Automatic annotation (TrEMBL):
<protein>
    <recommendedName>
        <fullName>ATPase</fullName>
    </recommendedName>
</protein>
<keyword id="KW-0175">Coiled coil</keyword>
<feature type="compositionally biased region" description="Low complexity">
    <location>
        <begin position="12"/>
        <end position="25"/>
    </location>
</feature>
<feature type="coiled-coil region">
    <location>
        <begin position="47"/>
        <end position="105"/>
    </location>
</feature>
<dbReference type="InterPro" id="IPR027310">
    <property type="entry name" value="Profilin_CS"/>
</dbReference>
<feature type="region of interest" description="Disordered">
    <location>
        <begin position="1"/>
        <end position="31"/>
    </location>
</feature>
Length: 139
């Protein structure tokens, strides 16, 4: 059996004893809306305060988002204005590092050349003697 209202559970009944008038009406003519009207009326100030709080929070959030956008735009503009100087610093640092590496490579090559030249000078007298002895031996 489907209930039309919570009050349907109160069936019209008579008092114990001989027949008499019904105890509770089976249908509430005013309905649950009238029963809850006092509750909703009591809650109205809280609902209105909550609505005001939400509206204030939305305004504050919009202000915060606008401030954040402005701050981000200012930070981006500052970064863009610093970018050429930072690029130049990076270029100079890269050039300095490349020059330092080239200088180290050149020094290492010069050392290897010096070692090879010393070896050549050390072998030269023996090679000259060898070449001369071959020339003399030829008929």
């Amino acid at each position: 059996m489907a209930w039309q209202s919570i009050l349907d559970r109160f069936r019209p009944v008579g008092a114990p004893g001989p027949a008499g008038p019904a105890g509770v009406p089976s249908q509430d003519a005013t309905g649950p809306a009238a029963e809850l009207a006092a509750v909703f009326e009591a809650l109205r100030p809280d609902v209105e305060q909550a609505s005001r709080t939400v509206a204030e929070a939305r305004v504050r959030a919009q202000r915060l988002v606008a401030d954040a956008r402005d701050g981000a735009a200012a930070e981006l503009a500052a970064a863009r204005s610093r970018a050429p100087a930072v690029r130049e610093e990076a270029r100079l640092a890269a050039e300095q590092q490349a020059a330092s590496e080239a200088e180290a490579l050149t020094a290492r090559a010069d050392a290897e050349v010096a070692v090879l030249a010393e070896r050549g000078r050390a072998r030269l007298p023996g090679m000259v003697d060898d070449v001369l002895s071959r020339l003399v031996e030829q008929p």
